[in-house]
Design goal:
The chain has 187 residues and is mainly α. The protein has one domain (14-27, 40-177). 76% of the residues lie in helices and 0% in strands. The chain has six helices and no strands. The radius of gyration is 17 Å and the shape is elongated. The model has no long low-confidence stretch (mean pLDDT 81).
């Protein structure tokens, strides 16, 4: 368990991770055993649910930008990308098939992952302890490309999105734990 933190970035990461874990679990529960495959249409509920996920990133990025002036520009950029992704995923999910939704989700995961990767590499130089975020950004970029490739398969399923979110949440928790300052020895 993570102790309470006075560091706003760590608090945002922990809350974001728990919201993402709840979202991934809710996706699995919402669709049950009827996860749409690549060429099937999505129900309105599943479409709205999938479109809502990038909004977690929007909120987390905007809160992070307010508390980290040195990273504010990059975080606002990521918030903008994620807001556009929510719209694109919503359009794809409501107007098209699960395959088109995988493409939209994959594009967002790739771009957002690349932004996270670049930010983590930059922060590693100045703050250290960024390996979980470097891994998260790299894997998000790769997962996005994988989602796009899977969109053309006959049996590609959207369940991979829930796993992607859960794993990303665990990496955020790991980062928050590793970014915790070492306890000071009593003098």
């Amino acid at each position: 368990m993570l102790p309470p933190s006075s560091d706003p970035q760590r608090r945002v990461a922990v809350v974001r991770a728990f919201v993402a874990l709840l979202w991934a679990a809710a996706l699995v529960i919402a669709v049950g055993g009827k996860m749409p495959s690549t060429h099937s249409d999505l129900s309105v509920g599943v479409a709205a649910f999938l479109a809502s996920y990038p909004l977690i990133d929007v909120v987390a990025s905007l809160i992070g930008a307010a508390s980290a002036p040195d990273s504010a520009r990059v975080l606002r950029l990521n918030a903008g990308v994620s807001a556009l992704a929510a719209v694109a995923i919503g359009i794809a999910a409501f107007a098209s098939t699960a395959g088109a939704t995988l493409v939209a989700f994959g594009l967002w995961a790739s771009v957002s992952g690349a932004i996270l990767l670049a930010r983590a590499i930059h922060r590693r130089r100045t703050e250290g302890r960024q390996l979980p975020m470097i891994v998260s950004g790299g894997l998000s970029t790769i997962a996005g490309i994988t989602f796009i490739a899977a969109s053309g398969m006959d049996e590609a399923k959207l369940t991979t999105i829930g796993g992607y979110m859960a794993f990303g949440a665990l990496l955020y928790l790991l980062w928050a734990r590793r970014a915790q300052p070492a306890p000071q020895a009593a003098a």
